[in-house]
Design brief:
- The complex is a heterodimer.
- Chain A has twelve helices and no strands.
- By secondary structure, chain A is mostly helical.
- Chain A folds into two domains: about 45 residues; about 210 residues, Orthogonal Bundle (MetI-like fold).
- The two termini of chain A are about 45 Å apart.
- Chain B is an all-alpha fold.
- Chain B has one domain: MetI-like fold (Orthogonal Bundle).
- Classes of the chains: A mainly alpha, B mainly alpha.
- At the A-B interface, helix 2, helix 5, helix 6, helix 9 and helix 10 of A face helix 1, helix 4, helix 5, helix 7 and helix 8 of B.
């Protein structure tokens, strides 16, 4: 059997580890990206890879500067964001309504849910060609696809959130002679909020992914279009910049929703 | 008795909407209420499916898609489990590699396609790389989380028994991470199918269901598109079921 001392040693010295973690974890996180960029820079400076396969980092940075100054990047990002906001709002509204309706009524669930699940099996990408034939390749197509991306997770999570509200709570409401509306507003919805938020976060992620998909297939503006266009022109700098912006906007939206969730549920800490 | 009758009621209710939709579809195409180019009759769709299966080798196309899917999935799965394990058990991996990985995974999957097409071309190789990437991300993440959540008592037992590093991985970390890995594999299977469809859309046209759908759209053949889309859904559904069954079987020992 090992002595306690040996175990502590094997543990990597807990105190030292904590010290390391506090001071350097953010620094060490940056080490690999810095190394990769250094390698990238070296590879392009030495000409290990042709410019069309991997443009120099300085060149990408310069293009990024140009695209920001000319307003081009902002324009495409704004187009994409507008589409997501419209599509997501429609999808989230429908999803919340449908989820709440199915959650409250067994009858509605029986009628709608099997069909809904069957439609949900078909991936968003599958709907794009079908809808292209029906509504063309204009704005309507993008909004419908994004709305569909948001609709599925929001409906399902809202539904299961409402169903998982404990029956006890609803009975308390009955004992207090709450009206149906009061029960919904004061008991069912607050109980379902965590699950609804999970749905909204997934919904926004799906909406953003669907946007990239639909813009790749049919678009003349937006970040997805930048990707396709850059690819066709062999402007890899443009492709890389568009990828980074897509990633950044995705993270920002997710972080924002996370913040909103904490804010809305701040009563949790006080109450319980 | 009562249970059986509520089940019957639920089945009857569940079938109402699809049957109603089918009836409206059939009636509107029979009565010529809609342009058949936009909504072909049910008979047309069935005939198209039959034609594609018998004359145009639909099964071959499906096999091409599935093969691509499985190849990419297996590569992504092996790499994902190894990467997730390595990063979780080594301090260098945890501190240095994970933050970068977390940053890169934020880029939505389809946005990788143009870059992959430059680096790997438009052929089979690029498609498999993309499918592998789609499977790799959730599998690596869930493996990492599962290993990080390994109960510390177990890890200590391993220390007390003076397990070698690989013994710790094989006997403690991996078994205790198995449920999380199974979740990752389940997600990976779903994502890899989406990626297969995406790869077939955006990369060069070759055999495959995605290519079939795109061809249908280009020819304005709504019936063909519908057949393709239904197959996409069915395959996704079956893969999901298969993964669920495999997951349950794999984790049977836990109960």
């Amino acid at each position: 059997m090992a002595s306690p001392l040996e175990i502590a040693g094997d543990d990597g010295i807990p105190n030292g580890r904590r010290f390391f973690k506090g001071r350097f974890s953010s620094l060490s996180a940056l080490l690999l990206p810095v190394l990769l960029i250094a390698l990238w820079w070296l590879a392009s400076a030495r000409g290990w890879l042709p410019e069309q396969i991997l443009p120099a980092p300085s060149y990408v940075l310069q293009t990024a500067g140009d695209m920001i100054m000319s307003g081009e990047l902002l324009y495409h990002a704004a187009v994409s964001l507008r589409r997501v906001v419209f599509g997501f709002t429609i999808g989230a509204g429908l999803g919340l309504g449908l989820g709440i309706a199915m959650g409250l009524s067994q009858r509605l669930e029986d009628y709608i849910k099997p069909t809904f699940l069957a439609f949900a099996q078909i991936p968003t990408l599958g709907w794009i060609p079908l809808l292209m034939l029906l509504v063309g390749i204009e704005e309507t197509l993008k909004i419908i696809i994004i709305a569909k991306g948001a609709l599925v997770p929001i409906t399902l999570n809202t539904f299961s959130g409402i169903r998982s509200v404990p029956g006890k709570y609803v009975e308390v409401g009955k004992a207090l002679r709450f009206s149906r509306w009061q029960t919904l507003r004061l008991i069912v919805l607050p109980g379902a909020i965590p699950s609804i938020f999970t749905g909204i976060r997934y919904g926004l992620t799906h909406a953003w992914t669907s946007l990239v998909g639909v813009e790749l297939l049919a678009s003349s503006e937006g970040l997805g279009y930048l990707l396709v266009w850059g690819r066709q022109m062999f402007w890899l700098d443009t492709v890389i910049i568009a990828m980074i912006v897509i990633g950044l906007i995705g993270v920002t939206m997710d972080k924002g929703l996370n913040g909103a969730e904490v804010f809305i549920q701040r009563w949790k800490k006080e109450g319980l | 008795m009562a249970e059986a009758s509520t089940r019957l009621v639920r089945i009857r209710r569940g079938l109402t909407l699809p049957l109603l939709l089918l009836a409206v579809w059939e009636a509107s195409s029979r009565l010529g209420l809609v342009d058949p180019r936009f909504l072909p009759g049910i008979e047309d769709v069935v005939l198209t499916a039959k034609r594609e299966i018998i004359d145009n080798g639909l099964t071959g196309q499906l096999a091409a898609s599935l093969l691509r899917n499985i190849a990419g999935f297996l590569i992504g799965c092996i790499l994902g489990v190894s990467f997730g394990t390595l990063v979780a058990v080594t301090r260098i991996g945890d501190r240095l590699v994970m933050p970068t990985f977390n940053g890169l995974k934020q880029i939505s999957l389809l946005a990788w396609i143009p870059l992959i097409s430059v680096w790997f071309g438009f052929g089979e190789q690029a498609k498999v790389v993309f499918v592998a990437l789609a499977a790799f991300i959730p599998i690596a993440l869930n493996t990492y989380d599962g290993i990080k959540d390994a109960p510390s008592e177990l890890v200590e037992v391993g220390r007390a028994l003076r397990f070698r590093p690989w013994q710790r991985v094989a006997r403690i970390y991996l078994p205790s991470a198995l449920p999380a890995i199974a979740t990752g594999i389940h997600l990976g299977l779903i994502y890899s199918w989406l990626a297969t469809v995406g790869a077939e859309y955006f990369l060069a046209v070759g055999p495959g269901i995605g290519g079939l759908v795109i061809a249908g759209r280009e020819r304005f053949d709504m019936a063909l598109v519908m057949v393709g889309v239904i197959i996409l859904g069915l395959v996704g559904f079956s893969l999901n079921r298969l993964a669920g069954a495999a997951e349950a079987r794999l984790l049977r020992w836990r109960t």
